[in-house]
Amino acid sequence: MAEIEANPSEEANMARLINKTGRDITLLTRHVIPAKGELTTTNATIRSPDNWPKISGLRGCGDLEVVFDPDGGKKAPAPVKRAARTSEAPAEDPAKVDLRP
Q: Which of 2, 39, 49, 91 lies 20 to 30 angstroms, CA to CA, from 56?
C-alpha cells in the first residue's frame, strides 16, 4: 500500500486516472494517460460526455483506475496541442509552372 505524504501537495487533491496497461490511452478531449502511469485532472474532465463512455468502459474491464477529487474545485491542465504541419517547400504559383516536355 502506498504511503501518504505528510505535507500533501495541491496535486494530491486532484482527480487521477491511473493506466494499468502497457499502452498510452488517449481520451477524446486529447488528454493522454501514459502507459503504466497516471493523469492528474479534474472531476469535470473525467465526467465529460466525451470522455466518460471510454473511461467507464476501461474502468469496467480493469484497465483504468479512477480516483475522484473529493473537493472537485481545481482547474484541469489544458490538453497538449500539436503544432500545425507546414510543407517544407513553398508552393509554386501555378501560372509560372513550365509544363513543356
A: 2
Q: Are 10 and 33 in contact (CB under 8 A)?
A: no
DSSP-based three-state secondary structure for 18: strand
Could you give the angle at the alpha carbon of 2 between the alpha carbons of 44 and 45, nearest 5°? 10
Global pTM exceeds 0.70 = no
DSSP code of 67? Answer: E
Q: Which of 54, 55, 18 is nearest to 34 (CA)?
A: 18
- Written as nine digits, the cell of 87 is 510543407
* CA distances to 11, 19, 88 from 92, in Å: 51, 47, 12
